[in-house]
Amino acid sequence: MLVTLRELLADAGRHGYAVGAFNVYNLESAQAVLRAAETLDAPVILATSEKALRYGGWRELGVLLRTMAREARVPVALHLDHGSSVESVLLALRYGWSSVMLDGSHLPYEENVALTREAVRVAHAVGVSVEGELGEIAGIEDDRAVEEGRARLTDPEQARKFVKETGVDALAVAVGTSHGAYKYHGTPRLDLERLSALHARVPVPLVLHGASGVPAHLVEEARALGMEIGDPQGVPDDLLREAVQRGIRKVNTDTDLRLAFTVAVRRFLRDHPGVFDPRKILEAARNAMIKVVQHRIEVLRGGTIHDG
Ligand code: 13P
Questions:
Q1: Whether this model's pTM surpasses 0.85
Q2: CB count in 10 Å sphere of residue 73
Q3: CA–CA separation, 126 vs 168, rounded Å?
Q4: Which among 250, 234, 134, 256 has a CA at the least distance from the CA of 190?
Q5: Taking Cα atoms as reference points, which of 305, 278, 198, 291 lies closest to residue 27?
Q6: How far is CA 94 from CA 23, 82, 89, 259, in A?
Q7: 91 half-sphere exposure, CB direction, 13 A CA radius
Q8: Which domains does the chain have, with CATH numbers?
Q9: Which atom of ligand 1 is nearest to the CA of 257?
Q10: Residue 276 C-alpha to ligand 1 middle, in angstroms?
Q11: How much distance in Å is there from the Cα of 41 to the middle of ligand 1?
Q12: What is the pLDDT of residues 191-241, one digit of tens each?
């Protein structure tokens, strides 16, 4: 069933959990997310970046993902991740997305407000919800890199004002995560005090980007299979649970799915040197992604703070 982000996150707020948003780009990744969510009877978000839409086609992915979302046995939002312009938002509206993000976080505050407000105006006119972003997290977002030292954490008072001035339905905040597999050099940490302050002040659900766990067992297997992966480090499950308890209601995951996909394909090809049926290869990848999504949904279930 296709629903808006607003509806999904309202339920998450009432019951104190976070909804998983998973980046997808083809049939198999979307099937993995929906099958995992259906086995756990959990609402879920299919997220598509602009890069994924350039890869797969707005219209083509729109038809596919919208059909899959509508027919799913759980509530699903189809969400544009990191929309960079009102033009992008309009394309998402045209092709049937139920939720969009306008990411003006790299802009000066007033410009971010103006751009986000315009996205809210056009999206709300057709009943689609909008996520905005304030503060900047480190790492790679589509084609734009933000260095670790330059990341700006979100100020709670400014965030309250931003929501009031723009009318967004959800807000992505910077509290110490970063996109990609290499989130931390030392001990993984989040600014949990800031997160609590944001939850207390901001009247809409909070979103955590760059939240992949980069599980050690996948990294070890990737290395054993010959992948050049260095020393990546993600957000540990316990820290993520704590973030949910402190008010995070949507958690984005991309890296963990990519890693699971790649490890599964490498393992399958090593173990089955005679197989060249793409369906068999992609089925192995899909099964690996299902496991990742199931695990993430379990972690995001059940905090202790309920909103309102
Ligand atoms: P990860 O790179 O940690 O998976 O984060 C993805 C993300 O935030 C997409 O918006």
A1: yes
A2: 10
A3: 14
A4: 234
A5: 278
A6: 20, 17, 9, 32
A7: 20
A8: 5-300 (3.20.20.70)
A9: 4
A10: 31
A11: 23
A12: 999 999 999 999 999 999 999 999 999 999 999 999 999 999 999 999 999
